[in-house]
Amino acid sequence: MAKSTNINNRRYLGNKYKLLPFIKKVVDSECTDIEIVVDIFSGTGAVASAFQDKQLITNDILYSNYISNFAWFSPRKYSRKKIETIIDEYNAMVINEENYMTINFSNTYFSHDDCSKIGYIREDIETKYANKEINERERALLITSLLYAMDKIAKTCGHYDAYRQGVEFDMHLELLLPEASITNNKKNKCYNIDSNDLAGKIVADLVYIDPPYNSRQYCDAYHLLENVARWEKPEVFGVAKKMDRTALKSKYCTKSAAEAFDDLIKQLKCRYIVLSYNNMAKKGNDRSNARISDDDIFRILCAKGKVKVFSEEYKAFTTGKSDIEDNQERLFLCICNEEE
DNA sequence: TGCACCAACGGGCCCAACTG
DNA sequence: CAGTTGGGCCCGTTGGTGCA
Questions:
Q1: Which nucleotide does the CA of A317 lie closest to, via C1'?
Q2: pTM of whole model > 0.85?
Q3: Strand C nucleotides within 7 Å of a protein CB
Q4: Fewer CB near the terminus (10 Å): N or C of chain A?
């Protein structure tokens, strides 16, 4: 019988899992009458999951994240038993076929055999969906299970910008059953569009904003999971075997980040905005410094309402090569002005 | 100036083994 | 047997180099 997994068993840059108590504390003590919560750069959906008692709207530009968000938060019914049976079948299978995954990714992030199995399973999920054996939520749950299983064994440093050379493939693909709620709010909605395109189209009580902080594009870091989630089998190139990601680039990773942020905030229709942003302004390598200055954050948020800042020490991740001190994760709360 | 490519290893945590 | 040590698993984000 399949073991289970939950939303936090993903390796993900900027993962807010450890900050959830801090975020909850700020929201609970500062915001009143919250019914609709928007996680507009939802990523894996960790922050949204902390507000599961509310009506949730999630959004992410990556389809792989959208699929996982849909698996966790969609109100659509699914059969846990059916998913578990399928996962058990997948885990018991020995696959040795050549497919899109073996042709492009053998012995890079995964061994040939694991590639073969990943390719087979992903194709089979689509077949089952086309044959109406599984519904949309069940498809999302199975893809999420596959993505989480891949992430667990990938020969990487946590993301797919590069794979590690000369390391044994000692783990094998094992799909786990996602522990998704069956009692999600009936009005929950998951989007897969640019946040700036969504901002003006929704009305909420609280909008949580957790954009990329630096020049590292999430579509670069997670191209392989995105590729498998989409399953459009694009051509891949370079050592890291990346696909074309032009449409998935975020403005928040470029020097026009502040401009994009300003446009986003102006469009929002909500009572409260909570923004997560670190204080890496000028501390590290240019690649890693924050893209939006504190001055810009204050200027933009103050034009929208009353701003308060809450900060908490957050141990900076280090590989021993850098020496970044006084790293803080900060929450900017904006109590929005009433609109006339 | 931006990004493609490459991947390093500190530290938290769990648990078994050891010690007094 | 309670307390301590340390092995090993797991998580995670940034630095360096080179080229367009």
A1: C13
A2: yes
A3: 11-17
A4: C
Domain ranges of chain A: 13-75+184-215+254-340, 77-182+218-247
Return the C-alpha torsion angle A32, A36, A42, A44, nearest 10.
100
Task: Tell me the average pLDDT of chain A.
Answer: 84
CA to C1' distance (Å), from A158 to B9: 13
Instruction: Count Cα atoms within 13 angstroms, Cβ side, for A297.
Output: 26
Cβ neighbors of A301 (< 8 A, separation 6 or more) are: A265, A273, A275, A307, A332, A334
User: What amino acid is encoded at A235 in this protein?
Assistant: E
| Least-confidence region, from A62-66, A128-132, A140-144, A311-315 | A311-315
Distance A293 CA to C15 C1' (A): 22
Q: What is the distance between the terminal CA atoms of chain A, rounded to a whole angstrom? A: 57
Query: Domain A13-75+184-215+254-340 falls in which CATH fold?
Result: Rossmann fold (3.40.50)
Which amino acid appears at position A245 of this protein?
R
Q: Please, which positions of strand B sit below 7 A from a protein CB?
A: 1-12
Specify whether the CB–CB gap between A206 and A37 falls below 8 A. Answer: yes
